[in-house]
Amino acid sequence: MNIQIEKTGSYLPELVITNDDLATIVDTNDEWISTRSGIKSRHYTSGEPTWFMGKTAAERALEGIDPTTIGLIIVTTVTPDYMTPATASIMQAELGATNAFCFDLNAGCTGFVFALDVAATYLAAMPFERALVIAAETLTKQTDFEDRKTCVLFGDGAGAVLLRKTPAGESSAFHGRFMGGTGDGAEYLVGKAFEVKHPFLPEETFPERFPEHEAGRDFSMAGREVYKFAVNALPEAVEKAVADAGWEIGDVDLIVPHQANSRIIQGAARRLKVDDSVMIDRIETIGNTSSATIPIVLDALVREGRVKRGMNVVFCGFGGGLCYGAVAFTY
Ligand code: ACO
């Protein structure tokens, strides 16, 4: 049973914030941000919730498709609007995908790659025809706009891919995967959820694992540690997924990595000895939108005609957890 990415969609909010805009609120400048990260501008929500961005990206992926043929919806997000219901349940109703079972998956910036693999695995094992994976992030909800080391990196947006069983006569298929992680680095990327506040809370409370993050729900990051992890994780995951597919690195036409930082992406291209035209770097105008970066970039590549049926593609995610993973497939 082979699976293909049938269609794609994305949504970027209209509001564009440049590096110069950020320099009006924190002590930074365009030169520092561009040279350290490759980012020039990013999109911020004007109030659109995460579910709305995800729904709009999915609607664009579903143009001309009967939503009742979808058997599974997975939404990846670290910034949901609700702890319950799952964002995926909201999608089911909004999209009219009445036959789908739905759940959210949180694996930080790796979420989309994990979800894609889970959806492809379910699709191969179950009788339904299609599965939908949506990545939607409103990182500005968690961004600390007083922390210049992190606030310059993030943006908001959503991407979606529709999977289906590969039609006869097409070469599309998933060939290889690698999924990994190291919880030892969990404290390097932290966004806190709810506080315990029941009325019987003793004065001396249970010690937290990351006490330095007690203060608030804003996101915090040990940038250097994440950088060290990412520059190795990205090429390692790509190499392992490519080997699992039975390919050589020279067989790969396009690598779409998580867009965290141009320096990480370009460092990985050098280590893998692939050309800049193979390793896709589109962070300049979107910034880091966590799990949404890969499907946002994929949708742009599809609409530009840059990715075509029969091409060998690798997606690679890495980030909070720390998690990392890659899938190798023929588009
Ligand atoms: N503008 C100007 N100066 C700044 C800024 C800023 N926005 N931020 C930090 N600086 C200053 C620091 O204060 C420091 O000054 P000092 O030497 O006087 O103390 C100097 O620049 C260097 O700061 P570092 O934090 O050491 O900068 P570094 O070279 O490590 O770059 C960066 C920071 C870009 C975050 C880098 O560590 C990195 O790319 N890390 C990877 C993290 C990442 O990509 N995270 C994304 C989220 S997770 C994910 O998606 C995987």
Task: Name a few traits of the molecule.
globular, five-stranded mixed beta sheet, four-stranded mixed beta sheet, alpha/beta, 331 residues, Peroxisomal Thiolase, Chain A, domain 1, binds acetyl coenzyme *A, 2 domains, 9 helices
Overview of the structural elements:
- It is a single chain.
- This protein has helices at 19-22, 30-37, 50-61, 87-95, 111-125, 148-151, 223-244, 262-272, 293-304; strands at 3-11, 15-18, 41-44, 70-76, 101-105, 130-138, 156-165, 173-181, 189-190, 220-221, 254-257, 312-319, 323-330.
- By secondary structure, the chain is α/β, with parallel strands linked by helices.
- The protein folds into two domains: 2-166, Thiolase/Chalcone synthase (Peroxisomal Thiolase, Chain A, domain 1, 3-Layer(aba) Sandwich); 173-330, Thiolase/Chalcone synthase (Peroxisomal Thiolase, Chain A, domain 1).
- The longest helix is centred in the C-terminal third of the chain and has 22 residues, at 223-244.
- The model has no long low-confidence stretch (mean pLDDT 94).
- Acetyl coenzyme *A is lined by residues 28, 32-33, 36-37, 109, 148-149, 152-153, 189, 221, 223-224, 226-227, 230, 260-261, 288, 318-319.
- Acetyl coenzyme *A (ACO) binds next to helix 2, helix 6, helix 7 and strand 12.
From the spread of the alpha carbons, the general shape counts as: globular
Q: What is the CATH class of the largest domain?
A: Alpha Beta
Name the helicity range.
Answer: 25-40%
Count of helical segments? 9
Tell me the fraction of residues in β-strands, as a range: 15-25%
Briefly note the CATH topology name of the largest domain. Peroxisomal Thiolase, Chain A, domain 1
Give me the side-by-side strand order of the main sheet.
Answer: 1-7-6-4-5
What is the strand tally? 13
Going by CATH, the homologous superfamily of the largest domain would be Thiolase/Chalcone synthase
Class from helix and strand fractions: alpha/beta
Total domain modules = 2
Bound molecules: acetyl coenzyme *A
Low-confidence stretches: none
SSE ordering: EEHHEHEHEHEHEEEEHEHHEE
Largest sheet: 5 strands, mixed
- Report mean pLDDT, rounded to a whole number: 94
The whole-angstrom Rg is: 19 Å
CATH architecture of the largest domain: 3-Layer(aba) Sandwich
